[in-house]
């Protein structure tokens, strides 16, 4: 159950990051509210997952999901650049996440 909570927490990290970009520096109400609510949900779920997962594992996976998710959302929805170097960086992040999961006994 902790892993499910952690993955959902990571997905909410992507939601709030995207909403924060859309908030235009917190000048738009709805995206600003989505940002704050998304942050709260993400952090609460992260903290619940950390009841049984090690800090280093949980935090690394959470930030990795957020980083990869933001990378993908940026490309798909915001027209951000997709090039070989950025893809290589994303693959390295994903590799690190897989290795972190494999190293965890939980």
Automatic annotation (TrEMBL):
Subcellular location as annotated: Cell membrane
Membrane topology: Multi-pass membrane protein
Gene3D superfamilies per the UniProt record, alphabetical: 1.10.3730.20
Alphabetical keyword list: Cell membrane, Membrane, Transmembrane, Transmembrane helix, Transport
Transmembrane feature ranges: 29-48, 60-78, 84-100
SUPFAM superfamilies in UniProt: Multidrug resistance efflux transporter EmrE
Family: Belongs to the drug/metabolite transporter (DMT) superfamily. Small multidrug resistance (SMR) (TC 2.A.7.1) family. Gdx/SugE subfamily.
The protein, known as: Guanidinium exporter
């Amino acid at each position: 159950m902790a892993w499910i909570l952690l993955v959902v927490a990571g997905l909410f990290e992507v939601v709030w990051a995207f909403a924060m970009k859309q908030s235009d520096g917190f000048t738009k109400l709805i995206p600003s509210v989505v940002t704050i609510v998304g942050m709260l949900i993400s952090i609460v779920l992260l903290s619940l997952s950390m009841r049984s997962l090690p800090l280093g594992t949980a935090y690394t996976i959470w930030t990795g999901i957020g980083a990869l998710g933001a990378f993908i959302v940026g490309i798909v929805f915001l027209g951000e650049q997709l090039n070989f170097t950025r893809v290589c960086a994303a693959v390295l992040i994903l590799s690190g996440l897989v290795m972190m999961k494999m190293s965890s006994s939980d």
